[in-house]
Design goal:
Strand order of the largest sheet: 3-5-4
Number of strands: 8
Distance between the termini: 95 Å
Order of helices and strands: HEHEHHHHHHHHHHHEHEEHHEEHHEH
Helix content: 40-55%
Number of helices: 19
Strand content: 5-15%
Structural class: mainly alpha
Amino acid sequence: MGGRPKLSKAQRAAAKAAEDAEAWRAETEAALILRDDPAPPLPSWPEAVATFGASTVEALAVTHPNELANACASATALRLFLSVPAAGVLPWRHRAQESLETSLQRLALDDDLQADVKSYRAATLAAGRSAAPPQLQPLEPLAALDGLLLALWGVGRRRREKLAHPVGVMEVAAAVAFGLASVSERCRSLLRAAPAEVRQSWGVREEWVRGDAPAKTPWRKGGCSLLRLLRARWVEAVAVSGGCDCAQPPVRVALLAWQYAGRDAGARWLAFAVPSTAAADLSDAALESFRGSRVAYIGEWGSGMTGTRHLHDALSEPASWALEAHVPLPNFAKLRIALYLFRRRDPDARSAQQAAPHQAGGKRKRRDAAESIVGCDVCGSRQRRLWRCPWSRQLLVCGEGCYAAAEQRHTATLALCFCGAAPTLRPPFALFEAAAWLERSQASDVEWDSLRDATPQAELKPPGAPRPRAHGSVVTRRQSRS
């Protein structure tokens, strides 16, 4: 008997998917409404952005029935028009602003986006009253847009909508800036002076740093969205920070605000979920019930930013766990996050180690959690008390001698941390803060606010929240720190 051949289950599923895709395409094309007002002449884009610029303008010229898609297209266009200089871009910038405001008026009633729309408008108003150094003021409206773009994209992902990832427009803007010889050479100089482990964590191509191979980008292929965001926004800030000095508090405040905007938006929409304060002991319970051989700890060790003191004490117990690997990770300003891989010790070896001090007539001493795993960046000592740079939090030293020896490394770290605003002087050792564990019940309000300021915030700041501190640390002067 003739007839249509019987399709397999996989073939039927593929055919159904193709039919659904075609139906969705037809419905979408029918719903698109071309703007009826005449478009301005197209901008004259630089070569590096020609393709992206053309597609962005094309998306802006269309009104979609989905208001979230309209807002995303308008915000992406405005971000591009504000950050990439091009002839004829001004009328398109006004057009994008009008389109975005129309979309935001409607999205302000959306429960998922109401707070983000308010935050964007507040940040935009604040940018108009900026106290930042003039050359850094253009970063403020871009920071507001970056937060909004990530929110629009994040909500769209939750609703299973296909929206362009906001990191794309940031990378395009960075590529245009990097195309300027002065900017690329500043980036090369900053990255060449940075510690090797920082370059490795950022995915820097060493042949580019040495100047052995010409390339359009210093980065190796790959990298998660959060790393791409960090690098692209860093290049943008380097492009405008020439002549700035991070020894000046207004410069530090402005560049911290720029980096915190990317850091916090990334924490909210791109990073890991972390237990709330209501589940503070979750890590303790997990470790106590864990029977595997290895534990991976990702965070800032021993400061109070990550985990609990009990967790640190348990992993620092030399009879139970051994530090197998320490891998520095990419960090925003004022973070020192790394991967620490711990291996559970063999039970027989653990028993022998526990018995050895008692056989010798001594007492087994538990290593201090905050100082046993992390050491001095200069001499490597893990036995002495450590002190942290108050401006960057990315240099640890054990005394004045190592502080003096770290001058070159410290200056390079500050210049990298503050996007090329190299310091004319370093914070003196007398202002370094103790790298000690902080508990909310024991720390002062100033100490706790400082730690919170350095911690990525996944929640939106309320209106009127204070700006980042130029210093960021409680300062207790001491005569001697040996």
